Structure formats: structure tokens, C-alpha cells
């Protein structure tokens, strides 16, 4: 799998990055540690060397599971983790980083990201310059190699860039959720910031496995996903019907087609979750799929069935 530069950090990441939110188990149903570990290991063996996690995923459970599973191959992997929005003042960032280092069984983190801007989800507002000062100090000490942000607006990203080098932005981005195209992606391209697209399969909707009447168990975060609700879900089903012939022409699944669309964009990687090994192998095959410019234009047009009816709120879930 041909690797891509992470900003200007000198770090190279795989176009398909394994996301491990599910491995934290909190806010997901039916996830088993044994299956998550098998999926992570299978991803590494199949060529995925970049893994994304966060301290918030199961209160460190995802980090611990990842660190345990890949301890013997740490030097050939890239770890990306995140500090939570309630840990963004100077001493909290330092303490959170040390916890993540311990959880991951490593003495450095390749990419350390601000998970959500300060003040998100009821968190305390902390000036970005204070948070960036802590991140810059961690970088100078060698505890982290690069700094990234997640779920930032353009103005928030610009503010962060004034106080240090930002090498990645992680927003929700998929065929069915394209808010980042309005202003974030142009800014990232201009400033050599790599886009790490999370929920590139719209939390599974783009796999085609969820019908219009599907419901999620209580506590599963997808029950609040805007795309799974009402008219949005109906429009998504209509779009999926039109995407299937394109996938069939290429001998691909809908999921592979959707991932290929994401990573066909410049300086863009797809962060894809998987709780089972067979899902990992499906995701990996997307990196070898070759679709034409005509296919991309057709997919773009089909996606508008969904995206043209969404509001301007870039948050994927109802709050």
C-alpha cells in the first residue's frame, strides 16, 4: 500500500487508516476485545500501518488494546491518538499525553490531535494558544512527532495554525457528508495539511447493509447519526441504488467504492473502523481499486441526492 505524507512532518501514513473507536466498546454494540485485536493485527498484516485512536474511546480502553496488540511491531507503525476537549489546558494536555503513552506502551506518539475544540460537548473553554503551547512543548521533548486537530471549523483551524504547525485535520467526510469541501479542504491543500477523513463510510450506511427500517440498540452512537434518520435515510437508500451498478462494474462492494472515492482526493486518507477481521480485508482492497474520472463525476452527482438536502451544521450527530 503506497504511503502518503502527513503534512510536512516527515511521517508517512497509509491511505487506509484503521480507526479504533469501536475497540473502545463504549457507544458501540456487539464489540468483543478478541475480535478487535484480531482485526487490528489483520490490518497490520494486510499493509495498514497507521492506526487512529483516542483517550476518549472507552476511557483509554481502545489505546490499551491497540498498544497490547501491536507492541512487537511498534517501530513499523504510526500511532495517532487524541486529547479530549475537557483536557486542553497546559497541565491537562501534558498529563493526558503521558496517560496515552502508557496506554499505548510507547515512548512517543506519531500524531497527537485535539479531538474537539475547547468548549465542545460542555467542556471548559481554553485559549488555543495555551493548548498549542503544551503540544509544541511535547513535540520539542520528542513525546509527539506531529500535531493535528479534529472537528475544527476553518476559523478554529486558522487560529491553531497561528500558534504552531498543524499537519492534519480530521473531519467527518464521505460521499454522503461533504461539509469539509466548502472551505476546509481548500485551506488544507493550500497549507499542505493532510485530511484524515473519519466516518468515510458514513458509519456503515455506505456499505448498503442497513435498510430503511433499521434501528440501533440504545446507547449505540449511530442512533443519533443524522443520515440514518427520516428523509435523509430515504434519500441515502435512493443514492445507494444508483451507486450499486458502478460498484458492480468494478467488481467491488459499495464500501470499497465509497472508500476509493475518498482516497482519490489529493492529500486525503480514510480512517475506517472495523470490529472484525473480514471487514479489514474488505477495506484494504479499496486501496487497489482504480476508478475513472467519469466514475468520480457520476458518484459526485449521485451523492448530491443526499448532500443537497443537509443543513450547514458540520456535526454528524444530533446533540
Describe this structure in words.
Helices cover 38% and strands 14% of the residues. Helix 2 (61-69) crosses helix 3 (90-104). The strands form two sheets. The chain has an eight-stranded parallel barrel with strand order 3-4-5-6-7-8-9-10, surrounded by six helices. The longest helix has 20 residues, at 230-249. The N and C termini lie far apart (37 Å). It has a single domain, classed as Alpha-Beta Barrel (TIM Barrel). The model has no long low-confidence stretch (mean pLDDT 94). It has 319 residues and is α/β, with parallel strands linked by helices.
Topology of helices and strands:
Elements (H helix, E strand, L loop, with lengths): L3 E2 L6 E2 L2 E4 L13 H13 L4 E3 L8 H9 L8 E6 L6 H15 L4 E6 L13 H14 L2 E7 L3 H8 L6 E3 L13 H7 L3 E5 L31 H20 L4 H10 L4 E6 L3 H9 L7 H15 L12
Parallel strand pairs: 3-4, 3-10, 4-5, 5-6, 6-7, 7-8, 8-9, 9-10
Antiparallel strand pairs: 1-2
Helix pairs in contact: 1-9, 2-3, 3-4, 7-10
How large is the radius of gyration? 19 Å
Q: What is the CATH-assigned architecture? A: Alpha-Beta Barrel
**SS content category:** alpha/beta
- End-to-end span in angstroms? 37 Å
Order of helices and strands: EEEHEHEHEHEHEHEHHEHH
Strand content: 5-15%
CATH superfamily: NADP-dependent oxidoreductase domain
Count helical runs: 10
- What helical percentage do the residues reach? 25-40%
Query: Major beta sheet, specifics?
Result: 8 strands, parallel, barrel
CATH class: Alpha Beta
How many separate structural domains?
1
| Low-confidence regions | none
CATH topology: TIM Barrel
Q: How many runs of DSSP E, i.e. beta strands?
A: 10
Shape: globular
What is the residue-mean pLDDT, rounded to a whole number?
94
